[in-house]
Amino acid sequence: MSLKMSNLLDVEKYLLLELVYFHLPPEHKNRISREAPMKLDEYIDLVEYCGYSVYPGFISSSANGYQYKKRRQAHFKRIFASSENLDDVVITGYVNDNYGRFGNTTDKNKTSFVGLALADQDNNGAVVFSGCEQMYPSSIVLDWGGCLIASLGVVTSHHHQAMNFYDHYMAGILGERNILGHSKGGNLATYVYINRLDQNTRAYCVNAQPYCWYTMNDTQKEALKTDRFEYIVHQNDPTRKASYVSYISRTAPLNRYASRRFIDIHGFAEVKFDEFGNLEGARVIRETASQLKSRLFHDYAAEKRLTHDECMARFQEKLSEITSLPRLFSTTLDEILLVTEARVAIIWLKDEDDRGPFIYPLIIKSPGAEDLYQLKLRPGQGIAAQSVFEGLPLYIRDSRHYRLPVASLNRVLGLTITSEIAVPLGIDEADVFGALELVNKLDGVFSLEDFALVNEMTLAMLDLFKKSGQSLDSYRDFSLLQIRKGGQRIFAVEKNGFKEKTFGSQTDKNAFLKKISGLSLEPNERLIFNRITFTCDKPEQLKRLRRQEYAVIFEHPQLRQARTRVSTVLMRLLLQLRENRVNLSMVAKMMGLDDKLKTRIIDLSEAEYIRLEYGMARIRRPKLIIVNPPPRGLNPAAYQVMCNRLKKDCQKKAVTVIVLNVDNENNEVKND
Q: Boundaries of each GAF domain copy (predicted)?
């Protein structure tokens, strides 16, 4: 339980960053002090009564605003309940110089500055600064005006307030002193950090308004490129372009189903976290001046290239701070990506099913991570599998001369594999439980020096893993789709699985279908699809998820009686798909209906109609196919032929299938 940056997971840091945007009611905020702190979970319990500064005031206080706050509160509670680090954290200070009833009392100056101070039992402390206000026009002017002049290097009153807030609440903190900030709050955090480098400070900024690079001295510039400072940028976030930036640590891809509005890109809720609570798919950058060169200015500071021994010394120092198994694996991959300049890093685990042994990805550092999590690789399928099943480290300088098939990995990564490194993971040589794999170097191919360094870093990580005595068993999860209520899983289907579920009535079946489609999620329920979490407050994302990843066979039973031509139905489908690689005749031929284009659907035979339904589902290339009960009177034999074909598709890892049946003679719901 610690506020140390080396222990806090990304999801926990994001909680602290977002929480400061929920402004405590006056009757609570004025009671907080270092002598009378408030527990973090008490603050979370008050979120529904807080003002929410990201929305304008009239929305924040509306019924919709209240429901949004309740949903974010439920999200915070889930994180807090599963956290090993936040249980003993208390709020020791709170300042909110905003207009309106959630600001400070009337005798305070209204500057729109907001700060939160925290501490833990080990005498570590943290301060968190919020970004720009949206609740009141006066706050918008103060905040955005401050952002503009801060980008030019002007020290504002907010910077002075942030420094005073830090100095006051970090006085007496003997452990680590951490500074967190988002958006403009990140600008304030950067300013405080570079002016308190002589203290045990670390900073974590997300989508931060950059502090003016050209007003800093060389010591401050170098401090922003060390491990003490993390600057996270969401994919396509425009904020960093407000000034020159040469110190980005990681870029994080957005949830693929998120809308690309500024508030979604810039905010908190649309990035993904892996099973460990770390940013999923985040790319370690530590961008150099040559990679981000300003059109108007040039930074001639050279990046130092570390030797093998210097890399290992730095890595060992980072590992010595880690007590959390999730952070251990994630940090190892981050560091290896950084020193080798690999494009992709994956930790694979070994398992076994009825077809024999296989490996599957546990952690992936790649923007296309969600597609890779579908993979199961058998012996003979790539060097990671070979490394696991033979227990040998492997170095492939040129993958063109390597004979094992890697087509599935090429396809989901969206690139051609040119160079690889794989190192087995195990307690000893006889007990290998997985592998660490690197794919493609950013510029060129992996060298023998890269291979030697990865081997040594992996051994150092494994040594710490063995000493911890911890197990990876709790992180094994093969679900494509699951519904969780509170902390319980109430339904799950495995990736590429074929699952049948029988209901006692059509009403029960329809209720379940709405649930797994995200149409009837309760506030305390989550739909997790391919490791991405959806809640009832994300209707647009759920809609995109269904459109992109779901297909329902027999979704419209009345289609069987339609007098519409087959060609008309298929053309509508192709227009929805915007599919350029196939045309009408190709689709009809694949379905075995090329001579039936002008035939009305009602005139198709039962086998032909089944092929039409199956083909319309598969042509969309969904990850999940849901099979409704067939229309009344449909030949059971033809229906069974389709189900058998879907089973084969699952075995080929082409899709996941849920078959819904209704047993009218039995009123009890049967679960397989």
A: 324-457
